[in-house]
Structure formats: structure tokens, C-alpha cells
Write a structure and sequence with these properties.
Layout: H1 3-27, H2 33-56, H3 72-80, E1 90-99, E2 104-106, E3 116-121, E4 128-136, E5 139-140, E6 143-144, E7 153-157, E8 160-164, E9 174-176, H4 183-186, E10 191-193, E11 206-213, E12 218-220
Parallel strand pairs: 2-12, 3-11
Antiparallel strand pairs: 1-4, 4-11, 5-6, 7-8, 9-10
Length: 231
């Protein structure tokens, strides 16, 4: 950004404050038609400055960036082929390492989180359950909301693995545009809100769990257990 671009907002602010101050000051001296002319003249000056600012501002404040987001099929293909750790659109959000020395693990409560869950059997019996929470497609219109994504709560109670879904978190994106200085003539506000439906083929914030369990651990409580490499 140029020096003029940095100083321009401060110059405009000082100018407006000075203009308002002078208008109030001279407004006490003028009445009737003179006061009306003063107010109209002040308004005209503000409009002239607004037009100048309009042509000084860039057309867009958001760079056009090609999104790395993937389709539903591409995400699941990466999981099935065990290449998801090397995919740009899929990111690790949280990891839990929970000691567990029992012979059986009840996983029936995982159905409560309504999230795709897949298991991976380790090559050794290290008595540790490793749970990794992944999120895919966190970018929209050049903005990455990865940091705003909440994580589920994971714990083990007795011999049961408990997973509580994260609280819903709503993110609204707005884009400032240079039309705000003449919006009173053209209509509209100073921002564009991205409230249209997202591309259903590339679901935003698609999350899933990878659960790595010790080699000899028996999983109970569910008839449908998906393992990596067995889809």
C-alpha cells in the first residue's frame, strides 16, 4: 500500500472534523437563508470529497484466490487412500492421546456426534488411544476460518469412548466496497454480505475423526466399524 493510501483515511477524518467544527462555529453567526446556503455548501464539499475518495479506493479489497476446497467424493477418496494428511484442504484441528489399559472399548456413544468416524489399528499394543480431529474445506472467498472452528469434547468414562459435538459457531463474512461513498445515490450499503448458499458439492467445514487404537483392543457397542484400508 502506498503512503498516500495509508495517510488518506487520516486526512479525510481531520478534514471532516474541521469542516463540522467550522460549520457549527459559523452557524452561530448566520441565520435564515445564509445558514441554509452554508449547510448546502458544506454538504456539496463533502460530496466532492466523497467522489474523490471513490476513485482513489481499490475496486476490491479481497484478492481472487483459487480455493483448494474439495468435493465430498474427493475428501472420502483421500481418507480411503490414506493420503488425507498430505492434502491442503484437509487440516488437523485437535489431537488427544488417552491412556487405556482395558481389553475392550465401547464405542456406541460415537453415534451421538453425527460425524464420520474411522478407526486405524496400530501395529503395537502401546495402551494409548490416539484421536485426531480433522476439518476440510475451511476457506471461502479468500478467507480461512480455520481458527474459528470449535472442537468436540473427547473423553473416556469407564470403558466407553465419549464424544460430545462442538457448539455451533456461526461466521458471517462481509466485504467492504468502494461504492459506500456514493451509495446514497445508487442504493445499497457499505458492505456485501456473503449470505448465499455455499457449494453443496464442496461442503464447508466438513469434519471427521481418525481413531488409532492398540493392536489387540476389541471394539464393542457398534455393528459398523470402519477401518482405514478396508473401505
Amino acid at each position: 500500500m502506498s503512503v498516500i493510501g495509508i495517510l488518506l483515511p487520516f486526512i479525510i477524518l481531520v478534514f471532516i472534523i474541521a469542516l463540522v467544527f467550522l460549520t457549527v462555529f459559523f452557524g452561530k453567526k448566520y441565520t435564515g437563508s445564509k445558514l441554509t446556503k452554508l449547510l448546502l455548501g458544506t454538504y456539496f464539499i463533502i460530496l466532492v470529497v466523497a467522489v474523490i475518495v471513490y476513485y482513489c479506493l481499490p475496486n476490491s479489497t479481497i484478492d481472487s484466490v483459487e480455493s483448494p476446497n474439495m468435493s465430498f467424493e474427493q475428501i472420502h477418496q483421500a481418507i480411503e487412500q490414506e493420503t488425507f494428511e498430505n492434502v491442503e484442504a484437509i487440516k488437523e484441528k485437535e489431537r488427544w492421546n488417552i491412556p487405556f489399559d482395558q481389553a475392550q472399548l465401547n464405542i456406541q456413544y460415537l453415534d451421538n456426534i453425527n460425524m464420520y468416524t474411522i478407526f486405524d489399528q496400530k501395529e503395537n499394543d502401546d495402551q494409548t488411544i490416539e484421536i485426531i480431529y480433522y476439518v476440510a474445506n475451511t476457506q471461502f472467498n479468500g478467507y480461512d476460518f480455520y481458527d474459528e472452528i470449535p472442537t468436540p469434547t473427547i473423553s473416556i468414562q469407564g470403558n466407553s469412548l465419549i464424544a460430545n459435538p462442538a457448539m455451533e459457531n456461526e461466521v458471517k463474512l462481509h466485504s467492504f466496497h468502494n461504492d459506500f461513498v456514493i451509495s446514497q445515490f445508487r442504493g445499497g450499503g457499505i458492505t456485501d454480505e456473503f449470505d448465499e448458499r455455499f457449494n453443496d458439492d464442496k461442503p464447508l467445514n466438513y469434519d471427521f475423526l481418525i481413531i488409532r487404537v492398540p493392536k489387540n483392543l476389541e471394539l464393542t457397542g457398534s455393528e459398523f466399524v470402519n477401518f482405514l484400508g478396508e473401505q
